[in-house]
From TrEMBL:
Organism: Lentilactobacillus rapi
Annotated binding of substrate, by residue: R94, R104, R132, D217
Residues the record lists as binding Mg(2+): D217, D241, D245
Alphabetical keyword list: Amino-acid biosynthesis, Branched-chain amino acid biosynthesis, Cytoplasm, Leucine biosynthesis, Magnesium, Manganese, Metal-binding, NAD, Oxidoreductase
Name under which the protein is recorded: 3-isopropylmalate dehydrogenase
Gene3D superfamilies in UniProt: Isopropylmalate Dehydrogenase
Transmembrane segments: none
Designated gene of the protein: leuB
Similarity section: Belongs to the isocitrate and isopropylmalate dehydrogenases family. LeuB type 1 subfamily.
SMART domains cross-referenced by the UniProt entry: Iso_dh
């Protein structure tokens, strides 16, 4: 059966890293006879330019009917004053696909630790995931408006929204080191106090999981000073957005980190955690690894292609070890050269049905 992958190639560096990721997918797929169709749909700024809105209904339908959705990143100065910005389309596709849980891993591997801005002893061996609520909270709350002399945003969390994301975090902890850190601002916010109440109600369903609670400001500090404290961080939409960029920085670059967005049913969406990086677009220096890691996550979690994902992951690690890295990590390789090196490493590995060096 052919696997259907909807591709949203994005804006600014989006198409550059998507092209890199799809080359890696094609190279790996040959070794494993992985059969797939790519269905490209307009989205974000590209869709505004083509059809006047960031999320055409045809794109939503295609995404819902796919086996998985791959997105690079959208937005940028060209559309900052558009009546409906690309970012509105991003929030809307997450909502319409029901993708309430966003999983953002932070791992400092032995190859990566030298690129971290944090001392080796502190950062080496860091391995945690941020479980970010994705379809509610302040990014979605009503009312919201802006007038001449005031503006308002609203944070609303409903019981079922907190319950389901909490269960995602506890389920994930059960497969890891069985520890959940709930990150909030419960010394101030009603929604945070509510989260603590709901998490407390769910915790007895997971007697093997330990839980601690940490304010978001202290968490920001601990991510850089004690990152090994964390196993699973459970947090709301905005705190998760902010902390995941910070967590990415301790791995060496924002340009490394993938994510997976999951709902109750339907396809998952895989995307880097960063944005469209307009400052480096067109310069051939974007790090493609965030996109390649997102593709590896897709192969692992949607298509059960564990060996293929392992081969890609090893190729990425080898490429970092070989210092075949882009500028964000301190190297001087181009996006294309890094991608080529990853593909060479895939082809060199003892993969089943070794075909040819298809670089
Ligand atoms: N999921 C998405 O599509 C997201 C979209 N955005 C949008 O992206 C646009 C740019 O936002 P920024 O605040 O500049 O954040 P950004 O994440 O695009 O960039 C922040 C910094 O990280 C660097 N960077 C990001 N990805 C990189 C990569 N793969 N390789 C090397 N360097 C990389 C950029 O060059 C920049 O210096 C905005 O319109 C924003 O709304 C922002 C975050 C997520
Ligand atoms: C539109 C933003 C919420 C996108 C973003 O920064 C993210 O999802 O990390
Ligand atoms: Mg973000």
């Amino acid at each position: 059966m052919t696997n259907r992958i909807v591709v949203l190639k994005g804006d600014y560096i989006g198409p550059e890293i998507m092209a890199a990721g799809l080359k890696v997918l094609r190279a790996a797929a040959e070794h494993f006879d992985f059969d797939y169709d790519l269905i490209e749909e307009p989205f974000g700024g590209e869709a505004i330019d083509k059809v006047g809105e960031p999320l055409p209904q045809t794109t939503v339908e295609a995404a819902k009917n796919a086996d998985a959705v791959l997105l690079s990143a959208i937005g940028g100065p060209k559309w900052d004053n558009a009546p409906k910005r690309p970012e509105a389309g991003l929030l809307s596709i997450r909502k319409q696909m029901g993708l309430y849980a966003n999983i953002r891993p932070t791992r400092v591997t032995k190859q990566l630790k030298q690129y971290s801005p944090i001392e080796n002893e502190i950062v080496s061996g860091t391995d945690f995931v941020i479980v970010r609520e994705l379809t509610s909270g302040i990014y979605f709350g009503e009312p919201r408006w802006q007038k001449a002399d005031s503006a308002i945003d609203t944070t609303v969390y409903r019981r079922n929204e907190v319950q389901r994301i909490a269960r995602t975090a506890f389920d994930m902890a059960m497969k890891r080191r069985k520890h959940v850190t709930v990150v909030d601002k419960a010394n101030v916010l009603a929604t945070s106090k509510f989260w603590r109440q709901i998490v407390g109600e769910i915790q007895p369903e997971y007697p093997d999981v330990t839980v601690d609670y940490m304010y978001v400001d202290a968490t920001a500090m601990n991510i850089v000073s004690h990152p090994k404290h964390f196993d699973v961080i459970l947090t709301d939409n905005m705190f998760g957005d902010i902390l995941s960029d910070q967590a990415a920085a301790i791995t060496g670059s924002l340009g490394m980190i993938p994510s997976m967005s999951v709902g109750q049913s339907g396809p998952n969406l895989y995307e880097p955690i960063h944005g469209s990086a307009p400052d480096i677009a067109g310069k051939h220096i974007a790090n493609p690894i965030s996109m390649i890691n997102s593709i590896s996550m897709m192969l692992r979690y949607t298509f059960d292609q564990f060996k293929m994902a392992d081969v890609i992951d090893r190729a990425v690690s080898q490429t970092i070890e070989d210092h075949f890295i882009t500028r964000d990590l301190g190297g001087d390789e181009t996006t294309e050269a890094t991608t080529k090196h990853i593909i060479k490493s895939i082809n060199r590995q003892e993969a089943p049905r070794y075909v040819k060096d298809n670089v």
